[in-house]
Structures are given as structure tokens and as C-alpha cells.
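User: Please fill in residues for this 294-position structure.
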């Protein structure tokens, strides 16, 4: 949780975090993504970790990036390229060595203290002694305990229905499947109507069938609330299916190698995932990923 992580963020060493020729694909843009209605502005962000032993490790180097408000952006790249480090900086879990970050005109710290950053990780991190309803309300209760007004919060019963957990309100985490636990974590992250939703491989621990289903569910929920989402994944197919843009990072020290505008129409469905255009995008990203890993 934010309050616990805040006390440790200066101590942690996050040193490790990867067709048909007649198809027309929109060319990749330049490394800096200039978009209207900018929600996130990242300027010359670098991150170097001073280790207890050995040489310093530079995880990020001079990252420049703009992300449009309400867009869904995925970050992919080789393992250890700084994807999770960049997400921790956006979530105010880590202070960059240099550079500046602005989210809708606010610093990540100010936005987090207002409860306006939603976080979903690979593990749901639910409180085992709280039921579904109580786990979803937890972040609101923590923010209210600090005396912060949360009139913008969504309604818990609404979120329970939106994430497909109707009838499970009084169930405890041990009574839920992995996919259902992640639905609770997503509802908890959405409760305070966040300006930014950060998702760090949220479906990586799920089986393939459940992971695909959660991808469709996430797309449905995003289309309803239109949040700015930054999503980390090692699945190129998942990135293409979900995203407006896919950011490909280079090997460490992480930099923006290329930005792809995914021009597949929305809403996206099962048939689209079987299309030649979808396969072409996945193949394009796969070839570029191999190039940056050389």
C-alpha cells in the first residue's frame, strides 16, 4: 500500500525489473510521443541505483514521453530494461535520480496523496481478514483517515457489478480464484476515480484462458471509465490487443526505442485477435524486440 511503500522507497534497490506483406500499418512514431490533451509528461527522467557493493546500475536514461489523457498505453521490452522502474516513478514509489514527471499538471506525490493513482500488481495483495466489499473500500478508508475529501469516489456496489463479482461481496480472498482476486484489486484501484491507473503485469500469474478473459474484461471496463492506463506486460499479443500505443524500450539502461500507434479498430473482440492485421502487429513488435535484445 502507498503509505507503507512510501517509507521504504528511498531504501529499495529496484535494479532489476522484455504476415501478410500487403497489410498497411501506421509507421512508428519518434521516441517522444506528442499527443493532444497530455495526461502524463515525462522529461529527461533517469534512474541510477547506488548498490551496497559494486558499481552503480543505471536503470533508465533520459526518458522523454508524453501520454494522452484517457489513452491505454502498454510498455514492453527486455527483462531488466526499466519498465517497472518507470512505473514506480509514475506511482511515486520511487524518486528519479534526475528529470521531471507531471500527471495532469500535478506531481506524482501530490496525486498519490490525494488518492488519485490506482495501482494493480501481479499479486492482488488483498487483506485476508477482509471480505470482497471491505477490500475494495480499504483505500478509500485509508485516504479518509488522513483527512482527505473523497467525494469523487465511485460506489462500491457499482464497481462490484462492473468487475463481475455480484453475489461475492461477502466472500474472503481464500474463497476466490486468482482471476476473481485480480478483479477485486482492479475495483479497489478504481474506487477513488483515479486520474492514472498503473498496472504492472496484473495477469502474469493467471493461466492462459483466464488471462485472455481478464484482457477482455479490462478492455470493457476501460471503455466504460476511459482512465489513463499505463500497462506493463511481457505478452506482445496482450499489448497489441489492449493498447492505443505500445512503447518499446531498449535494453538497460532503458530508453524509449520506438512508439507504435496501434490502429486496430475499437471495440476489439475475439475475431480481431484472429485477424491478419493483429498477427502483423504482433510480428512487427516481436522482430523489433529481438533487435533491441541483440
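Assistant: Residues filled in for all 294 positions:
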Amino acid at each position: 500500500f502507498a503509505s507503507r511503500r512510501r517509507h521504504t522507497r528511498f531504501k529499495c534497490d529496484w535494479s532489476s525489473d522484455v504476415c501478410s506483406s500487403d497489410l498497411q500499418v501506421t509507421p512508428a512514431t519518434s521516441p517522444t510521443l506528442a499527443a493532444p490533451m497530455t495526461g502524463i509528461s515525462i522529461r529527461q527522467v533517469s534512474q541510477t541505483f547506488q548498490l551496497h557493493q559494486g558499481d552503480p546500475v543505471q536503470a533508465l536514461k533520459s526518458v522523454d514521453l508524453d501520454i494522452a489523457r484517457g489513452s491505454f498505453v502498454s510498455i514492453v521490452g527486455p527483462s531488466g530494461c526499466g519498465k517497472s522502474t518507470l512505473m514506480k516513478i509514475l506511482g511515486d514509489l520511487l524518486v528519479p535520480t534526475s528529470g521531471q514527471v507531471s500527471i495532469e499538471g500535478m506531481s506524482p506525490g501530490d496525486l498519490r496523496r490525494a488518492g488519485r493513482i490506482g495501482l494493480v500488481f501481479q499479486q492482488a495483495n488483498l487483506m485476508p481478514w477482509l471480505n470482497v466489499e471491505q477490500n475494495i473500500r480499504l483505500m478509500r478508508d485509508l485516504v479518509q483517515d488522513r483527512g482527505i475529501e473523497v467525494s469523487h469516489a465511485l460506489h462500491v456496489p457499482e464497481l462490484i457489478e462492473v468487475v463481475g463479482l455480484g453475489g461475492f461481496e461477502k466472500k474472503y480472498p481464500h474463497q476466490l480464484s486468482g482471476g476473481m482476486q485480480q478483479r477485486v484489486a482492479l475495483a479497489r484501484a478504481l474506487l477513488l476515480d483515479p486520474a492514472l491507473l498503473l498496472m504492472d503485469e496484473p495477469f502474469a500469474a493467471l493461466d492462459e484462458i483466464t488471462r485472455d478473459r481478464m484482457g477482455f474484461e479490462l478492455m470493457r471496463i476501460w471503455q466504460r471509465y476511459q482512465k489513463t492506463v499505463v500497462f506493463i506486460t511481457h505478452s506482445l499479443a496482450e499489448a497489441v490487443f489492449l493498447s492505443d500505443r505500445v512503447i518499446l524500450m531498449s535494453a538497460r539502461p532503458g530508453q524509449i526505442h520506438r512508439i507504435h500507434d496501434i490502429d486496430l479498430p475499437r471495440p476489439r473482440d475475439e475475431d480481431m485477435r484472429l485477424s491478419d492485421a493483429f498477427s502483423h502487429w504482433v510480428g512487427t513488435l516481436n522482430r523489433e524486440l529481438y533487435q533491441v535484445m541483440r
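For context: The radius of gyration is 19 Å.
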